[in-house]
Amino acid sequence: MTAARPGDGQDGAVVTGCPYGGAADAPPTAYAEYAEMDALLALQHPRTAAATEPGFIIMSQVMELLFKLLHIEFTTARDRLADDDVDAALWALRRAARVQQVALSSWDFFSAMTPGEFAEFREVLGTASGFQSASYRRLEFLLGNKNPRMVLPHRDASSHEAVSRQLHEPSLYDSALALLHRRGLPVADAVLARPYEAPYEPHDSVERAWREVYENSAANRPLFLLAEALTDVADSFARWRYTHLTVVQRVLGGKPGTGGTDGVSWLERISGHRFFPELWSVRSLL
Q1: pLDDT per position as a tens digit, 122-150
Q2: Interhelix angle 134-143/160-167, nearest 10 degrees
């Protein structure tokens, strides 16, 4: 009887489902081909000999991939709410919460760089800035922070159409408020009729609707769970922004940011923003 090889099942059958297992005679590039690893790992091109530049590039790319995954999950949640499938929306938000945790911890690498280490390659960034990230801007729009002016930095980029389209689509919060209205809660028609591309303004009727959800949480259990899940999203995003601020303060101090942004002063302004504002203000009424 032949002993099972590493990567085999207990009965000697080849295990093919694990990306790190498989038989010795299996095609060695199957995993790399599936995930296009060769293309992914060929995307890093440092422009200096600075020891920390490769890490800066890789972690910046990781952050962009996390933005893309969050966009997928939040879009799923938005669309499931539109279908009145709150359970499926909550499950997507559960997955997104894990991704947000990874995004937050990704700042740890950047905070490990000293000002001198960053200065060794900062000049080659030129006008490049995270402010120009189309994935981040689409994520902001998807969560409800709409501002038509924020499309302008992408007007000459290949991402312009996608960013503009996101501006004109309903946000996750739009979908949640429409759900509240369909469930008989007092969300004003004016809130629902707001153009999707217009900046969101808090409304008393939305605050009253969430208050009713919280004060009758047993009767409104799915909506109560949705309220808390959305608050978790906003909370994690606020932590991500604040950590971004502290990392920039640590590495750059008060100097202007890359790409000509205001650096710390700009990050201080946006760190106070909260998605889903009535879910925060209603807490003062409970």
Answers
A1: 999 886 667 789 999 999 999 999 999 99
A2: 10
Place of tokens 């925060």: 280
Could you tell me the two tokens for 78?
């938005």
Tokens of 208: 């009253």
Under the phi-then-psi rule, with left for phi > 0, alpha for psi from -120 to 50, and beta for the rest, what region is 7?
left
Indicate the length of the chain as a whole number: 286
Phi-psi region of 202 (alpha: psi -120 to 50; beta: other; left: phi over 0): beta
pTM: 0.87
CB atoms within 10 A of CB 246: 14
Q: Please, which residues have CB within 8 angstroms of residue 134's CB and are 6 or more apart in sequence?
A: 154, 157, 159, 162, 163
Residue with tokens 């409970």, as numbered in its chain: 286
Amino acid at residue number 77? A
Mean pLDDT, the chain, as a whole number? Answer: 89
Residues near 87 by Cβ (< 8 Å), separated by ≥ 6? 222
